[in-house]
């Protein structure tokens, strides 16, 4: 909606372009303290506020980051003349319990956040000056923010949202009661009316970040100057520090890895919190930025009290445990990785180096997060971020949403405009984003076509990356993929066209289907022409399991599949990256080759997930051998197959919102006992499989769900509400044996 529709006569006010931490204070009168009083408030970048000295909310890092408004230094505008959409969120709270009759005080503190992030490599970006706006409604009376609000500088003297925050509490008396009624603010300056950002305004309807829990680190070593602590897990949040020595300069460093009982210098990523103490009894911590770490270095003149763990307040709605330690570790590591990469309802790629909502990582994990977490409101917001980050002229979708200058590729990143709304419909059964963004989806295909030659996507914007598979292992370099990027990008083009055929049926847009089918045929023929070897049956020599990309969209022949399986058995480890890992595991399970999938997921030798586990990881790594970020959720996309195939909870093909569920476990010799649950729009589904002692499967189904159990031999049993139990064969015949492979030990893999 327009600004005036939400705020009436309120004005944005500012302290000007020099401020990076502003404390603002305003007074207002209430005659009817018994009536309901509400506030709509927005502070840009991030803000915290109180009424009469009392906190109204535990929300942090509000409002949720978005593509706020036009900025002259945004790369996509300056270089390419792109036109994106804009969105600013506001918070709405009931402040009735905090109001008194007569004079009241609203106090607010503003910090940079993403709105004015002016430091850090490749992060210099500003949408404007810090500013505040609010409307207070008491009955029919409306009170608006204006230039009678006063301000002073806060304690933050320097900040980078991705690296550090410096504070100086000796500049002013920050414990002087400025948030309370009756405070003398005569020395403060008046704010100025700021230009209202030209944007679309919304009340935030997705959860905010909060302190989720506190952890108490273990002291692991110390020197004459420093103390080193281990948290036992990687978290996002901030340290709570005490120091009563007036004027003492305290510099705290954090890292996501420990080496020789100290911070591992390779993985501290510039993360620093620094403050000058004022001598008061207070707890010091960063105000408007987060760190990601599992270890912390504190000087001897300060005391570490605890670590407050902070992320978007979304709940886990799944459970999984089995008799394999690696899979159990992986499930827990992905949950932790995803939670600490969720801030402002943005699924980020890493919580320290970049903190951005990459559309590549985000689309890879979207269905998994939706299935495992109560994340509907979060993804509704992020779909809007993706749409806002699409160029209205060319259809180009940025590599990050909200937009921040970054790197990526056309298919695996931009096709998030199709893949994420599709996953949203698949899990939640909600069609609204499909209707709302159908034209956006179609527009992106025009962009892909304009960057194609000979029917293959070969470029992105001039001077930008054009990645395909990211972080696939290779001999030359751990992040240099060997698989040709056009093959990967055309895979996503075709895959998304298949999605569009389904979406067209759902939304009543069938007139587009024949056109989609023709493009699929053209693009498929181009892939065969360019990459298929008639002599061997391989695509692109099957580098980095290139065959699975093509098999997944119906290309190749029996040799293509034979070669893929043989190479996997011979290699014995993953050779895939950000997208291929997920595609490969799903494909193997779908083809009844779950034993190979589980062998890859649990193999000892590197590159592997067990290698991460055995080396002490508590989160998933960006690169298989741990060369850069050690907290990256992209490989966690495969976690959903633990639920879909080991527990067997999945939807029938071409059904959505769990309207038709099958319980069809892949009864694999390596996994004998497994139990867990998934939450659905109908309620919880629980499965417990015991193939060690009782040889039973127990299934619990919620009311109103159409569900069927499929046993080891393919026989179907209709399930009713509540718990059902079935006996299992002690020596079951495995799933349908799709093909006989010409490898000497094929029977080991039940094929």
Key features?
751 residues, alpha+beta, 7-stranded mixed sheet, 25% helix, disordered C terminus
What would you say about this model in short?
The chain has 751 residues and is α+β, with helices and mostly antiparallel strands. Helix content is 25%, strand content 28%.
How would you characterize the overall build of this protein?
- With 751 residues, the protein is an alpha+beta fold.
- It has 17 helices and 41 strands.
- Strands 13, 14, 18, 19, 20, 21, 24, 25 and 26 form a nine-stranded mixed β-sheet that branches. Strands 1, 3, 6, 10, 11, 16 and 17 form a seven-stranded mixed β-sheet that branches.
- α5 runs antiparallel to α7 (416-428).
- The protein starts with a helix and ends in a 24-residue tail after the last strand.
Q: What is the helical fraction, as a range of percent? A: 10-25%
Task: Estimate what percentage of residues fall within beta strands.
Answer: 25-35%
Nearest-integer average pLDDT: 93
**Unreliable stretches, pLDDT < 50, 5 or more residues?**
733-751
Q: Biggest sheet: strands, sense, closure?
A: 9 strands, mixed
Instruction: List the total number of helices.
Output: 17
Helix-and-strand structural type? alpha+beta
The dominant shape is globular
Q: How many individual β-strands? A: 41
Task: Give the SSE layout.
Blueprint: H1 3-7, E1 13-14, E2 21-30, E3 37-44, E4 46-51, E5 54-55, H2 75-80, E6 87-94, E7 102-111, E8 116-117, E9 125-126, E10 131-138, E11 141-144, E12 150-153, E13 156-160, E14 164-168, E15 189-190, E16 192-193, E17 200-203, E18 209-215, E19 218-222, E20 226-242, E21 249-255, E22 258-259, E23 262-263, E24 272-276, E25 291-299, E26 303-312, E27 315-316, E28 318-322, H3 325-339, E29 342-343, E30 346-347, H4 359-372, E31 373-374, H5 376-388, H6 410-414, H7 416-428, H8 432-436, H9 438-450, E32 452-453, E33 456-457, H10 485-507, H11 513-531, H12 546-552, H13 558-571, H14 580-590, H15 594-602, H16 609-614, H17 640-646, E34 649-651, E35 661-663, E36 673-680, E37 683-690, E38 696-701, E39 707-710, E40 716-719, E41 722-727
Parallel strand pairs: 6-17, 14-24, 35-39
Antiparallel strand pairs: 1-10, 1-16, 2-7, 2-12, 3-6, 3-10, 4-5, 4-7, 8-9, 10-11, 12-15, 13-14, 18-26, 19-20, 20-25, 20-26, 21-24, 21-25, 22-23, 27-31, 28-36, 29-30, 32-33, 34-35, 36-37, 37-38, 38-41, 39-40
Helix pairs in contact: 4-7, 5-7, 9-10, 10-11, 12-13, 12-14, 14-15
């Amino acid at each position: 909606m327009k600004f005036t529709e939400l705020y009436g006569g309120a004005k944005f006010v500012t302290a000007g372009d020099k401020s990076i931490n502003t404390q603002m204070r305003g007074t207002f009168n209430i005659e009817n303290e018994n009536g309901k009083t509400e506030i709509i408030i927005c502070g840009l970048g991030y803000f915290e506020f109180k009424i009469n000295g009392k906190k109204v909310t535990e929300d942090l890092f509000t409002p949720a980051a978005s593509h706020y408004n036009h900025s002259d230094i945004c790369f996509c505008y300056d270089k390419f003349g792109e036109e994106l959409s804009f969105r600013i969120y506001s918070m709405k709270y009931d402040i009735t319990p905090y109001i008194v009759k007569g004079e009241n005080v609203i106090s607010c503190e503003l910090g940079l956040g993403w709105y004015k992030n002016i430091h850090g490599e490749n992060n210099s970006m500003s949408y404007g000056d810090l500013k505040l706006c609010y409307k207070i409604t008491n009955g029919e009376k409306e009170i608006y923010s204006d230039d009678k609000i006063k301000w002073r500088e806060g304690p933050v003297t320097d900040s980078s949202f991705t690296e550090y925050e410096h504070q100086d509490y000796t500049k002013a008396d920050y414990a002087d009661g400025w948030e309370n009624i009756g405070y003398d603010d005569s020395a403060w300056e008046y704010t100025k009316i700021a230009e209202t950002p030209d944007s679309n305004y919304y009340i935030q309807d997705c959860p905010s970040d909060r302190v989720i829990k506190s952890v108490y680190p273990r002291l692991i070593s110390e020197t004459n100057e420093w103390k080193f602590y281990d948290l036992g897990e990687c978290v996002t949040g901030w340290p709570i520090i005490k120091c009563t020595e007036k004027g003492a300069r305290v510099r705290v460093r954090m890292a996501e890895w420990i080496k020789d009982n100290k911070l591992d210098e390779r993985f501290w990523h510039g993360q620093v919190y620094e403050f000058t103490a004022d001598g008061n009894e207070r707890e010091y911590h960063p105000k408007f930025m987060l760190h990601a770490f599992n270890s912390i270095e504190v000087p001897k003149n300060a005391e570490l009290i605890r670590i407050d763990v902070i992320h978007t307040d979304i709940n886990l709605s799944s459970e999984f445990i089995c008799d394999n330690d690696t899979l159990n570790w992986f499930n827990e590591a992905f949950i932790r990785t995803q939670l600490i990469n969720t801030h402002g309802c943005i699924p980020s790629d890493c919580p320290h180096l970049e903190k951005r909502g990459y559309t590549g990582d985000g689309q890879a994990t979207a269905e998994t997060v939706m299935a495992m977490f109560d994340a509907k409101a979060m993804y509704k917001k992020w779909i809007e971020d993706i749409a806002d980050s699409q160029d209205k002229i060319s259809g180009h979708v940025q590599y990050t949403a909200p937009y921040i200058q970054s790197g990526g590729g056309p298919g695996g990143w931009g096709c998030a405009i199709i893949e994420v709304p599709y996953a949203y419909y698949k899990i939640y059964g909600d069609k609204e984003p499909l209707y709302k963004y159908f034209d956006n989806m179609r527009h992106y295909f025009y962009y892909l076509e304009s960057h194609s030659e000979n029917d293959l996507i070969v470029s992105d914007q001039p001077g930008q990356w054009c990645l395909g598979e990211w972080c696939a292992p290779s001999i030359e370099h751990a992040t240099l993929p060997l698989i040709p990027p056009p093959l990967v990008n055309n895979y996503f083009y075709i895959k998304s066209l298949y999605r569009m055929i389904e979406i067209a049926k759902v939304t009543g847009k069938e007139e587009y289907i024949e056109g989609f089918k023709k493009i699929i045929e053209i693009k498929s023929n181009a892939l065969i022409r360019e990459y298929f070897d008639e002599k061997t049956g391989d695509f692109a020599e099957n580098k980095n399991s290139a065959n699975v990309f093509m098999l997944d969209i119906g290309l190749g022949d029996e040799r293509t599949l034979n070669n893929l399986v043989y190479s996997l058995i011979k290699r014995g480890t993953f050779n895939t990256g950000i997208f291929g890992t997920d595609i490969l595991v799903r494909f193997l399970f779908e083809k009844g080759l779950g034993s190979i999938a589980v062998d890859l997921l649990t193999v000892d030798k590197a590159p592997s997930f067990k290698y991460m586990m055995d080396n002490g990881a508590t989160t998933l790594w960006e690169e298989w051998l741990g060369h850069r970020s050690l907290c990256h959720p992209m490989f966690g996309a495969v976690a959903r197959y633990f639920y879909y195939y080991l527990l067997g909870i999945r939807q029938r093909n071409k059904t959505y919102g769990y309207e038709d569920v099958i319980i069809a476990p892949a009864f694999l010799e390596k996994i004998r006992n497994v139990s867990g649950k998934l939450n659905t729009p109908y309620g919880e589904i629980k499965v417990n499989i015991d193939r060690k002692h009782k040889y039973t499967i127990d299934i619990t189904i919620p009311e109103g769900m159409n569900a069927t159990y499929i046993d080891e031999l393919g026989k179907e049993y209709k399930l009713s509400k509540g718990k059902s139990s079935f006996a299992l064969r002690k020596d079951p015949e495995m799933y349908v044996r799709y093909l006989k492979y010409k490898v000497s030990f094929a029977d080991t893999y039940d094929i």
